[in-house]
Amino acid sequence: MPTEEVEDTPINAEPTKGFFVDMITRDISLEQAVLDLVDNSVDGAKLHRGGGDRPLEGFEVAITISGVRFRIVDNCGGFSRETARDYAFRFGRPPGRAKLEYSLGRFGIGMKRALFKFGDHFTVESSTDAEGWGINIDVPVWQDDPGWTFPWAETSAEAAVSIENPGTDITVDRLKPEVSARFGTAQFVTAIENVIKAKHRQFISEGLAISVNGRHLVATSLSLLIADRLQPGVDTFKFEADGKDPVDVRIVVGVGDSVPIAAGWYVVCNGRVILEADRSKETGWGIAEEENDEILIPKFHNQFARFRGIVTFDSADAARVPWNTMKDDVDRESAVWQQTFVRMIEMMRPVVDFLNQLDANITEYTREGSVLLKYVANAGRINNEQIKQKHTFVAPKAQDIQAPGPRWVSIQYSRPLPDIDFLQHALRVGSAKAVGERTFDLALSKQRGE
Amino acid sequence: MKGSSNRVDFSLRPAKHAERRMMTEIFRRLRPFQPVEDYLYIGFGSLWFTDFALFHRTLGVKRSISMEREVSFKNRFDDNKPFAAVTMDYRDSSLVLPNADWSQPNFVWLDYDDPLKKSMLYDVQSIATRCASGTVLALTVQSFSAKEVDEAEADKTSGVSAMVRFRGALGANAVPPDASQEDLFGSAFGRLSQRILLDQIGSALSVRNGTLGPYDQMKFTLICDIEYRDGMLMKTFVGIFATARDQNRVEQCGFENLDFIPPATTSIKIDVPILTAREIRYLERQLPKGYNFINYGSIPREHADNFAKLYRYLPNFAVLEH
User: Fold this and answer.
1) Of A177, A185, A260, the CB nearest to B202
2) Is the pTM of this model over 0.95?
3) Interatomic CA distance for residues A354 and A255, integer angstroms
4) Nearest to residue A343, comparing CAs of A284, A255, A268?
5) What would the pLDDT profile of A180-221 be if each residue is shown by its tens digit?
6) In chain B, pLDDT over 70 holds for what percent of residues?
7) ipTM exceeding the 0.95 mark
8) Which of A286, A334, A408, B263 has the CB geometry, 3.0–4.6 Å to A369, for a possible disulfide?
């Protein structure tokens, strides 16, 4: 009877390719997907890194984005046929895989996610110094085939990568319409440049050359002010646990230029910037002490526009650093993060106090009369990368540098606009502020009989 | 528009006059999309409504909206409206534009007095996301220098450069990465402002087009850009929104045949020549010129050549006293 045969056949619980592709491409933004591909190139470069100040010198990543095609080519060593066959195109990281030290790609999904997200046709060609290989996949055709494999393809004769020039060349075309629409705009290309410059700042400063549509990305430097009485605070420590790789942590706090958009905490994991200029509760702003409800650290205001905090986590085991799966946020459950966070708050406090004093000094003496502002404005700069030694944060006190002299006081008043305009012309000055200053100075000299 | 109604008599600006006449010629060519008089015109009329009066007189535009923020002088604006075809809207452009009627193609001239700022990006985005095929957008900005240049100068102690402020004010993704400090002045600033605005339109359209089929994909085509001096250096660009389906209508408009657009380019520079009334008559009698050289007489070449480029668009001033 047919019923018996049906009962013998087990229930089909196999995933469909369509579902799988949809799931992995769903929650990631185009910018994140591009960053994941750059991360893979960075991992390749790290394997072959040199020494000294610029260990990634000589490695290049070239990205081309348009409404018809996406391409990323690097010379960062490529990966082997064996890696391609057994690991690189699996969804998820199979057990037994030798871990890549200090890697960024721990979750093994970045490349697949980007390829399927962007379009319906992709080619991957890679070459190590021993061998080369390639694949050429038509996604709709692949989705209809049973089985979860990719066939090998011939590598092209004019391939950008070869045994002499080991690296990886990935191209996606037949872009999905919404992807093509965004890739074709100048603003998206600018956004990609900005996000790579921010997230891969450290690697660029270590010599990695990244270009987008032929334009070379210049590292934006993260610098702090330094002077005799103004020194960044630095602390370094290690998290060790039995059987696990240690995590090296470095925290730097200090004062920078008054640029609100650059102010806040920078969190870096294995060289990759996870949070930049963070001013949220995530990194301590607005934290209230639970017992007394006393505000430990205020919420961010523009008077803290000079705050700079940088915390870097490095570990040979990428699973130990406190980032989330998307590498766009910290993993708040991580014990490493939670303990580091406590130390971050402690180190942040004196900088916030100094910035409050600076603000009070400016309010009391005006921008021109403030000695603290003058001291800060004349301070030198040091790049984040050069800061290594443990140090306590040092900041000047107004009374230590207050030059003898009269106190300055700010005058504020309002007058009708036509009158201000009239005086502005009559006295030949350029602003309402200048009218106030000029009329004061003229009245003063007249009264003094000068 | 800070106080410019109080200062400049808008009627005596020869370069602006030429620009308005050119704008009329552009609008006149929109017949393939719909009768020109059925277009709705949206602009900033100020107290003189010069453009509104011109478009009604020459094109028969029946409906127009003048956006005006200075509500305190409402009566004076109402009393100066030239025709019943003009409706006042006493709100900021950021409120008028998203709520205007975009079901038919309109022509919009955002004639700002100020250098580029973020609110202008929002204004063009409002239009690009909603407008119908056949809408013409003209935009004028001051291109003498970015306001962030003066801000940086006034606040030198902080050491924050004008370019950093500019990127902060407009949004890091709005400003091209290769823009540098020199691009915040003069003609270069005009070009940068235009590029940023066009990129914003591109971005808004890419979002809009994401859900549309191939024939409904909206595109913005630049018709021309104009640089002129009016006290301050100013930059205008004009373009038309049209779907893929309507691209043949754009071709029928034949904008490239406009005689003020030089061949092989869309960039126009209005240089008002300085000539006496007699010199004007002398040159006019030789125009239009084909391949003949003009007899310059004693007239400086540069002024004569500028006159030849624009003579049909310059105003005729008659001074009635001798």
Assistant:
1) A185
2) no
3) 9
4) A284
5) 999 999 999 999 999 999 999 999 999 999 999 999 998 877
6) 93
7) no
8) A408
